[in-house]
Amino acid sequence: MPLRRRLLVGFVAVAAVLVVTNLALSGTFRSFLIDRVDRQLTEVASRPVFAGERGRGPGPPPGESQTLTEYFIAVGDRNATGFSRRSSAFADEDRPPPRLDHGEVLRHAARRGAPPRPFTAPAERGGSSWRLVAVSSPRGDQVTVVGTRLDEVDATLGRIRLVQLAAAAAVLVALGVVSWWMLRLGVHPLEDMARTADAIAGGDLSRRVDHPGEKTETGRLGKALNSMLGRIEEAFRAREASEARVRRFAADASHELRTPLTSIQGYTELWRAGGLQSEEKLSEAMRRMEQEARRMAALVEDLLLLARLDQNRPLDRTGVRLDELAADGVRDARAVDPERPIEASLEPVVVDGDEMQLRQVVANLITNARVHTPAGAAVRVSVGVKEVRARLEVADDGPGMDAATLAKVFDRFFRADPSRGRAAGGTGLGLAIVAAITEAHGGRAFAHSLLGRGSTFVVDLPLAAGDGRTRPPAPQRT
Ligand code: ADP
User: Fold this and answer.
1) The pTM is what?
2) Is the distance from the beta carbon of residue 401 to the nearest atom of ligand 1 less than 6 Å?
């Protein structure tokens, strides 16, 4: 059942309880007050003047009653139909005597010795009523009626009912205000949340719940819901971005693989069509096919490595001397490119990592510094410790890069000059692999460069746990 209906049912139930309690209370009060009047009347009626010998006419009871100040007395014959003698302590237009029904009086008349049975009768005129007690004479031929007006009782009851009504109205108004307040604070925000949830289910992930602060339960729920929605949206966007990245990666990889494949296919078709008759042409075609096949193999190797790194598998870590890997890289580069001035400044640094992968990082950076710079441009390789991290830097005096290129160099398949890059045998994955390996080792790869001033590629890695420099150096005393 919705909360709104439950509140309404509660409201109606409270109102019903109030009505029943008020009725019961006023009933109890009325019988209490009438009981008192009855006791007074019974007391008066049991006096000897009424219950005793005849001969004394009706009149005010001797020795005024303490409580009965307005009374009525009538005497009638049992067998006659009316009341012959009547007397009243008062008699005016405003306070008419009771309308006496002879039959009814006789029905209620107490036998001798029996307790009287008081009854209520209406006044002759107007809306007031009388309480009466009828007593039979000892001989049983006469009946005396003693009565008093119920005006005071009715007035008291009227006042009590008024107070009860006012109290019930106040309780209901308070209940109404509280219900409205609860609806406003509790139900309306919940309904709003339900609408927002529907909108989100419909695809609008940016929707958020309006909540009235954190002071109420619904407010806290709204806040929690909003932070959960924020997380979900974030995760959803991240998944979308990752899916888009995977799709682009697959498309780029297919495109990269298609180029050498098309080339190989072209040579085989040329050979089938008889276009490679001479030994010289055939061997040139074979050389080109081999070159393309090697390029494809390198590309597939790189793709496999990236795919493995994407899986976040645990690394095969050992203590690796980064400076020694860099020295090997420099040696290899000098062997391949003896003319190139390559400077090395290597400080012993140990990192925990996969040696093969770190070797590839060094090789990729030094190869780039050679391949993407003019022959003769100097290259500087350095390894050291900076801010309690191992740092490998490969700098060159090449052409450098503009800011837009610099922002993308670590992207997969990015080449500043695609035709030149491909011609040089690059896959466009070298720096993406550097970044992926570095991140897998808990490090960071970045570059700074200025057009015409060369580039510097930096790899920042955590020091091996055993390296004393993992903790910041103690502040030097001066
Ligand atoms: P590849 O070298 O196979 O093209 P990389 O990911 O290693 O792929 O490099 C991406 C691109 O970044 C290169 O194509 C080149 O345009 C640019 N680049 C990389 N290293 C340098 C460098 N040292 N100097 C200038 N440009 C560079």
Assistant:
1) 0.59
2) yes
